[in-house]
Amino acid sequence: MTDILFVEDEMDLAQIVSDCLEFKGYSVNHYTNGADAFQHFTNVKPDIVVLDVMVPELDGFDLAQKIRETDHQTPIIFVTARVQTADVIKGFGIGANDYMKKPYSIEELIVRMEAQLKRLDKIIPTKYVIGNYFFDAIYNTLALNGKEKKISYRESELLRMLLEHQNQIVKRSDILSELWEYESFFTGRSLDVFISRLRSYLKSDPKIEILNIRGVGYMLIIH
Asked: Per-residue pLDDT tens for 170-214?
């Protein structure tokens, strides 16, 4: 049975969501504040975390940040009314796997949870050599000559996807669908920003190139 850590301080909403998920066969551990939720996470590691941003004592962003300090795999889905561009970027930057706007349907939440859990079940390499760099996709680090740089979760996932299709064109639409699950927020221009960051991180090795295939996508080449 899938164990869900659900953090929501709107009691009526929390009751409805919890009841529906339990009816569907999930085990739901509901908390109304981030501090208690984090204590539960450390004591009983759940399969997935679903949380609001605006909760007391330890808000959702801070809770997700604390989780990601020690756990880089458990899926985190934000469900919140905080949907300004800066909020969504912050959520993904912290390491969220998905970001849903309130109000949301239980059916959509379940689909998104199951998508994340299926990804987690895949056997995916976690350590890569990229030219002169060493990339750890679990701890989201790039190392060069023993010097380690921390990158964001989303940057790490994008780099891993490019590596898994090295010397092949990866379509823009496939990246957005796989890593962000919807294209409306992360426009092509936003994706270009992430690509530019990866290029800057890898610039010390001239053998590494991330090519922009105009109108199609990107290709990672190591000469």
From this structure: 998 888 877 765 545 555 567 888 999 999 999 999 999 999 998
CATH number of the domain located at residue range(s) 127-222 in this protein: 1.10.10.10
pTM: 0.67
Enumerate the domain spans of the chain: 3-121, 127-222
Tell me, what amino acid is at 9? D
How far is residue 50 from each of residues 19, 139, 144, 197, 207, measured CA to CA in Å?
A: 15, 22, 36, 29, 41
What's the rounded Cα separation, in Å, for the pair 171 and 104? 29
Q: Mean pLDDT across the chain, nearest whole number?
A: 89
125, HSE (Cβ side, Cα atoms, 13 Å): 13
* Architecture of the structural domain at 3-121: 3-Layer(aba) Sandwich (3.40)
